[in-house]
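The instructor's notes for this session suggest beginning with a concrete chain rather than abstract definitions. Hand out the sequence below and ask the class to guess, before any prediction is shown, which regions might be ordered.
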Amino acid sequence: MRNQRFTTLAATFVMFVSVYGLAGDVRIIVNPSVKADAISAQEIKSVFLEQRNSLRDGTHVEPVLSQGGPAHATFLKNYLGQNDDALQNYYRSLVFTGKGSMPKVLHTDEEVVAYVAKTRGAIGYVGATVTLDGVKTLAVYQSENDGTRRLIARVEPVYPVILRANHIGGTVRLKVTIAPNGTVEDAELLGGNPILGEAAMAAAKQWLYTPGRSRTIAEVSVPFDANR
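After discussion, reveal the predicted structure:
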């Protein structure tokens, strides 16, 4: 039964990767002056549509656009929900009404990286294979309106023998970074027993979530019940 379940999950994973393979080919980058380490999909849309000029932590940001290419097309589709012509018309209307200006537009991903690296508050997007020198990559998490990443394969943590024997349990809180393909790239302990936390993080790194548009940060709780 377990092998059958694993096979089903594996097949589901392959299907998700084939459907969403291109969705993760964009990284959101910022100048190191930006304090935030993560950004919501809704914030990205608001910033690039010039509906806001700062992140939730108050950091001022200036959007930078690519002129074209696969990363540009994926970014427009996944984050702004429109094509290039519609976006250009939108910016022109902002300029015409005095409500905004045309963002900086650069020709290549490499130019975007170089500009963001030297420009305080700059935020842009590039392909997943581009070398990132002098910039910071932001993890993208889902806001309430974007929905959540659903856990589809969970590995239970190994309960440390000495803690179980002494009836030491509790709940640990983790921050997990979920890759676009659903795998867990990193797990960080937010609270709870540090030894239990190590076990929980080791297990969480083997979990599998549903795919998403980009990296996602989620907080999870992992209980340890010594009486079970």
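Then share the key points. The first helix runs from residue 2 to 20. The chain has two domains: 2-143, 148-224.
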